[in-house]
Design brief:
The complex is a heterodimer of chains A (362) and B (283). Chain A is an alpha+beta fold. Chain A has 9 helices and 20 strands. In chain A, a hairpin with a 4-residue loop joins strand 1 and strand 2. Chain A is elongated. In chain B, strands 1-2 form a two-stranded antiparallel ribbon. The longest helix of chain B has 35 residues. Chain B has 283 residues and is an all-alpha fold. In chain B, strand 1 and strand 2 form a beta hairpin. Classes of the chains: A alpha+beta (362), B mainly alpha (283). At the A-B interface, strand 6 and helix 2 of A face helix 9 and helix 10 of B.
Chain lengths: 362, 283
């Protein structure tokens, strides 16, 4: 039961500034996911919390203790690694008991805790095996089991599902979430997979190049990305971006070759100062649909179909609009052919605008 | 097609393999035949009637008896064993710690240090024995086992360090990171997690170090002088060749007995030895 506090956290290697001024307050019992492309500093941040990397500048506290100078074993944390890091020369039972033995727990207590954890994870019958006799999913469970027997204050997960196949990953994701609801222990989870981040996190921290880009609940990140990077990173297929100019013709128009739509009136205030300047418009694929008679003419534009990807529950259309490409997520009943010219309509209320230079949301 | 393949297998596999096996094993066979051949056969002319250089019809153990009774061979054997074991233990201990440090710890000049340890391994003993002889004399260690026990590590420690460093690098570092989070100190994680996993590597380093010191010749020849202090390789050569007289039977008996312990060590640990050279944890 503990909160984790990071204050102006920095990590510099010889040449590389891996983590820059990270400030995070992870609340007690919260499940926070750090997500970003590789090299964004998420793993380094986690490893600093674990005590495996030294902190160049700043402060980390767990509970009400500053842990900067504490060795990993005194931080009361448990960590699950991407490659599971099971001790190959020990049985599953000994793997799980290792942390408790090191802390000199009585034998009966160790036995009870390992049994309990094994029961929760459904691995009772594996306790006598060695790690090399286990499948990937079983190893993953043992690694999680080794973490939970300790009843630590904080769980740290470093891409724990990356080595599993797609189906198992989805299954383990659900189990991890259920486990967190049950144990109510603060957890920090690192992944590069935005779907994992969105599904698991109470809050998600998006990082890039060592900077925190945005912190928020999953739907907040999705609906109100703070900048173009977050907008493009969260969501699959990714948000479409198109460079436009803002024109004032009574109302404001987002205008470029082959694409001219009216800016909703509630955005006028913010976009007024951009008149005559280039901005980036972001459109989620699901905010596009084939235009029907009911769509206002000032929210539609022409496109040419380039690729059709029928996924069953939906169809993804890769289309060309003027010089740019877009992806539209349309109803599975739609029948269009490659190279067919179509007219797309968009939900103007859900357009995103970004400053072209700073890439910050307008 | 099938016939052609069989033909190819003979040319490219069986025949070269046979040549190789014969080339490797023939010296041992020769050693064995000479050791059990009676003197009357050993010292007669090659042109004599009934001369059979590749086998003997009258095998005898007299050379072995002479070796045991008339020379101090058992003492040489013990000397060699003692010196090889102690210097192997010293070198393994240093090599373990140094190899771990070079593989895992970040400290200034780590790379340079690693390379320079390797370079010392490349200095030939034929050069190094001159300064070492001076040191041995100054410490008055000449003609004692310690002269060898303390000089063998000059090539054994670099060897063990490099072999073990390579081995430690194949063990995922997450294992000890996890152990350190689980409650072990760095040293504890090393001893409880890394060393047990590294057993094949440690064994190979040990076997190699043991063999190198068992077979070592030049330091043993220079630093030891009295017959009862000598090791097998030196003792056999210096005591069984007198002037231009070669006691071939006893020489070969001594060589044969001297190579048995090494052969035993290898055959017992050959599996560990192979994994030791090829890496550790998989999956």
């Amino acid at each position: 039961m503990a909160q984790v506090l990071m204050k102006d956290l920095n990590k510099k290697y010889d040449e590389v500034h891996a983590v820059k001024d990270v400030n995070l307050h992870i609340r007690d019992k919260e499940f926070v996911v750090l997500v970003g492309p590789s090299g964004c500093g998420k793993s380094t941040t986690l490893r600093m919390v674990a005590g495996l990397e030294e902190i160049t500048a700043g402060e980390i506290s767990i509970g009400d203790r500053v842990v900067n100078d504490l060795p990993p074993k005194d931080r009361d944390i448990a960590m699950v690694f991407q490659n599971y890091a099971l001790y190959p020369h020990m049985t599953v039972y000994d793997n799980m008991a290792f942390g408790l033995k090191m802390r000199k727990f009585p034998k009966a207590e160790i036995q009870k805790r390992v049994q309990d954890a094994a029961e929760i994870l459904g691995i009772q019958e594996l306790l006598k095996r060695k790690p090399r006799q286990l499948s990937g999913g079983q190893r993953q469970r043992v690694a999680v089991g080794r973490a939970i027997v300790r009843h630590p204050q904080v769980f740290l997960f470093d891409e724990p599902l990356s080595n599993l196949d797609a189906k198992l990953r989805v299954q383990m994701r659900v189990e991890l979430k259920r486990l967190h609801d049950r144990l109510e222990t603060t957890a920090i989870y690192v992944t590069h997979d935005q779907v994992e981040a969105m599904t698991l996190g109470d809050r998600v921290v998006v990082m890039k190049d060592g900077w925190v880009q945005q912190v928020g609940e999953p739907l907040e990140l999705y609906g109100h990305p703070a900048n173009r990077f977050v907008a493009g990173f969260i969501g699959s297929p990714a948000m479409n971006f198109i460079e436009v100019g803002i024109k004032d013709g009574g109302a404001l128009w987002a205008d470029t070759a082959g694409f001219r739509v009216k800016v909703p009136a509630n955005r006028f205030d913010r976009l007024k100062s951009y008149v005559g300047q280039p901005v980036t418009v972001g459109i989620r694929p699901e905010d596009l649909h084939l235009a029907t008679g009911g769509d206002a003419a000032d929210a539609t534009f022409d496109a040419v179909v380039e690729v059709v990807e029928p996924l069953g529950s939906e169809i993804l259309l890769d289309v060309k609009v003027g010089a740019s490409s877009m992806v539209a997520r349309v109803d599975p009943t739609v029948r269009v052919k490659v190279h067919e010219p179509i007219r797309l309509a968009l939900n103007a209320e859900r357009l995103h605008f970004f400053d072209k230079k700073s890439e910050v949301a307008i | 097609m099938l016939i052609e393949r069989r033909w190819k297998k003979w040319v490219f596999f069986y025949i070269p393999l046979t040549v190789f096996v014969i080339g490797t094993l023939f010296p041992f066979y020769w050693m064995f035949v000479t050791a059990v051949r009676p003197d009357s056969e050993l010292y007669r002319s090659w042109r004599a009637v009934n001369n059979a250089p590749f086998w003997t019809l009258h095998p005898t153990l007299e050379h072995f008896q002479d070796l045991m009774a008339k020379t101090t061979f058992p003492v040489w054997l013990w000397n060699t064993f003692f010196i090889a074991i102690v210097s192997t233990i010293i070198s393994l201990f240093c090599g373990l710690l140094a190899g771990y440090a070079l593989a895992r710890l970040k400290f200034p000049m780590a790379g340079t240090l690693g390379t320079s340890i390797f370079v010392t391994y490349l200095v030939p003993p034929t050069l190094l024995f001159i300064p070492l002889a001076d040191i041995i004399r100054n410490f008055q260690l000449g003609n004692t086992p310690w002269a060898l026990i303390l000089t063998y590590p000059t090539f054994l420690v670099p060897f063990c360090t490099w072999l073990l460093m390579g081995y430690f690098k194949t063990i995922p570092k997450e294992l000890e990171e996890c152990a350190r989070i689980d409650g072990a100190t760095r040293f504890g994680a090393m001893v409880r997690i890394i060393f047990p996993i590294a057993v094949p590597g440690i064994l190979s380093a040990g076997i190699f170090a043991f063999t190198l010191s068992w077979n070592e010749f030049i330091y043993a020849l220079i630093f030891l002088s009295s017959p009862e202090r000598k090791t097998v390789p030196v003792g056999v050569v210096s005591e069984l060749i007198r002037g231009d007289i070669y006691f071939w039977g006893q020489l070969m008996a001594g060589a044969l007995l001297g190579s048995i312990p090494v052969a035993l060590v290898y055959s017992f640990f050959v599996e560990y030895y192979v994994t030791g050279l090829t890496g550790s944890v998989k999956g």
